[in-house]
Amino acid sequence: MTRYRVEQLAHKYTDHDMISLHTELPGFPSGRIRLLHAVLSQQPAVSSNKELLALVTSLVQMGLDTHDMVENGTIEGKDGMPAMRSRQLKVLAGDYFSSRFYHLLSQAGQIEAVRLLSEAICELNRIKMSAYSKMKQLKLNAEEYVHYGAEIKSGLFLSFTGFMHGLYERLWPELVERFSRCEVLLQELKDAEKEARLNGGWGFWHVMQEGTEEDRRALAEHREDHGLIRQLMEKYGVAEKLGGLLRQSALQLRELVGRFPSDKLVRDLQPLIEPFLAAGGPQPATAWKELG
């Protein structure tokens, strides 16, 4: 398998002119898919199906992420029709991507994988509803926000724990959850640095948790005031704190990877962790020698 093989296969299902012309899709979950493929390669019982399992997981994830991009509420004004078309295409595209996993796995006789992924989808919907409810009531703190985000990213991938054996079975849940946490923190750091998605991100919940009563009240009452939010993000050092959290999680992830018994797997996973280490802050030049 080449480095981008699964993503190339997925493009057969995700590349459509109608979608690209009228709406946008979420990013391909490349890191988690490569993580899954690399670890499945070490499992003799399923290694021959690793490409298929990685492909269908990527399609299900794309389907779920596409549905999550659908905005609620009414659409008005001169841009109403394009916006409505974009919303409809996201719903249809998400349904299509999700349906492909059942078709591909059924053709291959992988009924157990169908069951496990279907159960994971149901659990993910429950987690999303719990998170949404807490957000709506302003009862979420910053760490819970990251935890929910990592749960949502890792949910499908945890389904494959039962396909693994020995030390791999014990380490896989922590590996995928830690990797997903790093993904969440990295995206939050990028958003904070670009001043994107200021309302509702980690910084918002951090200020609501740690801010003064005056700042919390102002933030709760003026959630659409980007100028105010930007000022508070700077006041509470959101970008710096996110960088520290990412660095800490990336180092823990690096240590965890080093516990796997396969030197080849460790080498294969190193490039997936390096972006987290780089974004989290300067690392010693000998950082990877501990895994050598």
UniProtKB/TrEMBL annotation:
InterPro entries: HEPPP_synth_su1. Pfam families: HEPPP_synt_1. One of its GO terms (biological process) is menaquinone biosynthetic process. This is Heptaprenyl diphosphate synthase. It comes from Cohnella candidum.
